[in-house]
Each structure stands twice: as C-alpha cells, then as structure tokens.
C-alpha cells in the first residue's frame, strides 16, 4: 500500500458522494496501491449510509464508524491508526482542502521531506469572525507554545509512515494533531494553498468547540498560562502594597481613610485575579485527571472492511 487518505466525517451526508468522487480521481493514478479511510465520528444523519453506499462503487474505500462522537481530532486519529499506507494524506470532508494538491505534496515528499503541510494563503467564504479568531489563535499559540507550530496550518497534510508512527506513539487524550506533528520534528515543509469555502453542509465547529479546541492546544503545548498566573499574583501583591501605603498615608495626614469605593475595587480586583488563577489551574488539573484515567480514545463499532470485527474493538 502506497497511499492512505484519511478523512474524519461528522454529519457530512451531503459531502460524502462528492468527496469520494474527487478523491477517487485523485488516487486513480496509484490504482490498487491507494486506500481511502472515512471515519464516521458518531454522525446523527445519514453519513454512515452514504459511506456504505460509496463503498459499493469504490473498492479502495474503507469506512469506520466510531461508537459515539469523539471530536474531530480523535476521529482523525482513529483513521490514522487504521491507515496502512506508506504515505498518509489527511483532509477535511467538506472539500475546503483541495485533494488535487496531493500530487504536488507527493513530489515534495519525493525530495526528502517527511511532512508536507498545507498552509492557508487565503480563506474564502469564512466569516470575518472565524478568520479573526483563527488569526489570533495561531499567533497566540505560537507565542506561548514551546514548539514552533506552523501558522495558518490545519491538519491538511501528507506525512510519511515514519512520522505517523512517531505521532501515534503519543497517547494523550487532548489531541491537537497538527501540534503533535510539529513536536515530532523530522523534515517538514509547507505548501501554500487557497482555502475554498465549505462545499456542502455547514461547519461542525461552533464557538463552543472552537474554544475547547483552542484551550486543548494551549494547555497541551504550553505551561505559560500557569506562569502567567504566578506573575499576576505578584502584580496584585504589588498593587495591594501601594494601596496599603496610600491607606496609612491618608490615616496619618487626614485622620481618616474613606472606604467604600476602594474596598469594592480591591475586592473585585483580587477576587477576579483569584478566580482567574483558579480557572487556569482547573484547566490543567481537569486535563491531568482525564489523562490519568487512561481510557481508550475511541471504539470502532463498524468497519466496512471486516464483517467479523467484534463491536467495540479498537483498531490497532
Ligand atoms: N468533524 C468531526 N467531528 C466533529 C467535528 C468535525 O469529525 O466533532 C470533522 C468534519 O466532518 C470535517 C472536519 O472535522 O471533516 C472539519 O470540520 P469543519 O469543516 O466543520 O470545521 P471548519 O472548517 O468549519 O473549521
Ligand atoms: Mg471545514
């Protein structure tokens, strides 16, 4: 097997036929040496039926159905664990990432690179809010993270077996796949492309999921927020020292320290600082707890390749 194409799909019923068509054309030159792995991430629409239907027309297609929705990054991981190719190509189901870029990525990999990732030159058809938050996210992450995570880069990439095996050795539950590839090292290079608008359906990343994704990335790749909490407590100590001087001064000079406004100010400021610090701690402790439970990342409930698969067996 030369190439595996891995696509996580959640409620992508409408995109599947178009996606499979485009992918089939792209992998046609590799004939039987290509496979397409579609992972149904606990969809509630007809995604799985669409995958099964597509499978009857495209023999190189394999469908995996997760037992419940586990999120984009875990669905992607499930596909990566199932992939058998020497080179693994991953993209979104909504065709925002042009599959046709595969041949360019292949030739760059032929020059000796281990990872060829797509870098978004421009994002079409995305809201100003999405573009602004994404812009801020990649820059903040880079300022905070201990590894250099390429900016404006999604999971759209071609990786070789060596790099994938390295990444799959990382057992964490809070997965930020593009960061894990960056952390793994090896020889990496970007290739610029224009991100198309979503072909069909709507985004599966509402604000709630975006925030979770961003905090997962930040906490997984940086401990700077914890240091920030320490610094903030020093700043508030400094501030309270100044206040103390002021209070003593006004007691000595004016024999009174009028209070209501400054008391309210101090209480709200310091309780704010405390709660924020607790919140930052909580984000890390919650993740420690989840990692410590060491649960399997996902269960596969159906696999079009093997009818004898026991339900709930993890693909290895
Ligand atoms: N996705 C998934 N599980 C989820 C959310 C999303 O498998 O819980 C998939 C989705 O089907 C798509 C990819 O992740 O293939 C990226 O999602 P989407 O295109 O909605 O994100 P956006 O491009 O809007 O950031
Ligand atoms: Mg998309």
TrEMBL record:
It is found in: Membrane. GO terms for molecular function: glycosyltransferase activity. It comes from the Bacteria. Residues 4-166 form the Glycosyltransferase 2-like domain. Keywords: Glycosyltransferase, Membrane, Plasmid, Transferase, Transmembrane, Transmembrane helix. The lineage of its organism: Bacteria, Pseudomonadati, Pseudomonadota, Alphaproteobacteria, Rhodobacterales. Its EC number is 2.4.-.-. Pfam families: Glycos_transf_2. This is Glycosyltransferase family 2 protein. The keyword Transmembrane helix applies. It is a multi-pass membrane protein. The chain crosses the membrane at residues 234-254, 260-285. It is an enzyme of class 2 (transferase).
